[in-house]
Design brief:
alpha/beta; Aspartate Aminotransferase, domain 1; Aspartate Aminotransferase, domain 2; 2 domains; 4-stranded mixed β-sheet; 14 strands; about 40% helix; binds pyridoxal-5'-phosphate
């Protein structure tokens, strides 16, 4: 390849990204964490309070997960060796899938290297099937919330559906969803409705009960029915009395539930849970399952330990501690006159700042005071809705939260 001109193009693109200050590659390097119960990140030899992590229950440093990971690595080695259908499935992967299926009260579950890979596979395969011999009827109508996660958007893009088959409904607007389903029923034999569980910018969530009612209504109006996929990567392990996520707080369920082990479960990897035929079909057709390694045995063991822990008293205690931290944080913020961008009941707590520069400066100032948070601005949120995203954890203690809120209120 004649590299120099192409390199020049890439160089210009990187310069453009840097100029508009949306650079992502200059990540902070964390050299470790201080001791539990409220771990701080070591950055350049200084310890920072972590309020920007998805480790909602503080499980990534939990002694039981660490032990499970160590013991299983000693038994099975550090890597999976090969993809499952070639080399054989390691017992721990199967145990994890059974535990996830039980946890979500589904027939079965399938583990992927990430929730991103799970979404790509599930969405692609239920739209199209993996090979040209697959006969799933005609191409479906796919309907997606406008704020769905990138992995959902890419799953739909990957399927190469024509534009008319992929429609977006206004965020959480169920009348709009209903209109689209209603208009599509004469033209399409089947439809797929896809939503995030917890939306990661504001911590809000869809009314799954309402969505389920609409979907059930139209299920019989489409020859091949309407499939409902919910990706609750942020919600599972973080909300609901028993940590079952948005399904638990809304009292309704998806046909296909996507989740991750990389957030509240403190490990890594993703999964889809559903009825037997859906999961069997995914095992036969998902490229990111068939042609890509699964998570390491140690990672699977840590995830398995986390899933089981959630149903034990220790897990319930963490869930209650997280709930209390959320309630306490909101209460003292409101007392100090701080404004929230949503009524989130989730550990994602967005503080409304309303100006991009102000939000960035405040996050920098928090960093100078050894507190890690995230500023979020347009186009991720609408203009004027700039926020600082605080992510709480069960292992934060009151002193950590008091310190953060004191700083925020002094810098309003
Ligand atoms: C809704 C949603 N789905 C999927 C993912 C990706 O999860 P993973 O890191 O397991 O790929 C995320 C992560 O931010 C997410 O918020």
């Amino acid at each position: 390849m004649s590299g120099s001109n192409f390199n020049k193009l890439l160089y210009q693109e990187i310069k453009r990204i840097d100029k508009i200050k949306v650079t992502k590659r200059k990540e902070k390097i964390i050299s470790g964490f201080s001791a539990t119960p409220s771990p701080k990140a070591n950055i350049g030899g200084k310890y920072y309070h972590v309020f920007n992590s998805n480790d909602y229950l503080g499980l990534r440093l939990h002694p039981q997960l660490l032990k499970a990971e160590r013991n299983t690595s000693e038994k099975f080695g550090t890597g999976p060796g090969a993809v499952r259908f070639i080399s054989g499935t390691l017992e721990v992967h199967r145990q994890l899938e059974s535990a996830v299926a039980r946890f979500h009260k589904r027939d079965d579950a399938i583990v992927f290297s990430s929730a991103f890979a799970a979404n790509l596979a599930a969405i692609f395969c239920f739209i199209k099937g993996q090979s040209k011999d697959t006969n799933l009827g005609e191409l479906p109508l796919v309907i997606s919330d406008e704020l769905n996660h990138r992995s959902i958007i890419d799953g739909i893009r990957l399927s190469g559906l024509p534009g008319e088959n992929k429609l977006v409904y206004r965020h959480l607007d169920y009348d709009h969803l209903k209109d689209i389903l209603n208009n599509g029923r004469k033209k399409y034999k089947r439809a797929i409705v896809i939503t995030d569980g917890i939306f990661s910018m504001l911590g809000e969530y869809p009314d799954l009960k309402k969505m389920r009612r609409i979907i059930d209504l139209y299920d019989s109006k489409y020859d091949l029915g309407v499939l409902f996929l919910v990706d609750d990567s942020h919600g599972v392990g973080a909300v609901g009395n028993n940590g079952r996520g948005v399904e638990e707080i809304t009292g309704a369920g998806a046909d296909l539930l996507v989740g991750t082990f990389g957030k509240a479960f403190g490990s890594d990897g993703g999964y889809v849970a559903g009825n037997r035929i859906f999961i069997d079909y995914l095992r036969e057709s998902s490229a990111t399952y068939i042609y890509s390694n699964s998570i390491t045995p140690g990672t699977a063991a840590a995830a398995l330990c986390a899933v089981k822990l959630l149903d034990r008293p220790a897990g319930k205690k963490l869930l209650r501690k997280l709930e209390n931290n959320i309630r306490y944080f909101r209460k003292i913020c409101l007392k100090q006159g701080l404004q929230f961008a949503s009524d989130s009941v989730h550990p994602i707590q967005p503080l409304l700042i309303g100006d991009p520069l102000k939000a960035r400066k405040l996050v920098d100032k928090l960093f100078d005071n050894y507190i890690l948070t995230t500023n979020i601005s347009y186009p991720v949120v609408p203009k004027g809705h700039d926020e600082i995203r605080i992510q709480l954890s069960a292992v934060h203690d009151r002193k950590d939260i008091d310190r953060l809120v004191k700083f925020l209120s002094l810098n309003k």
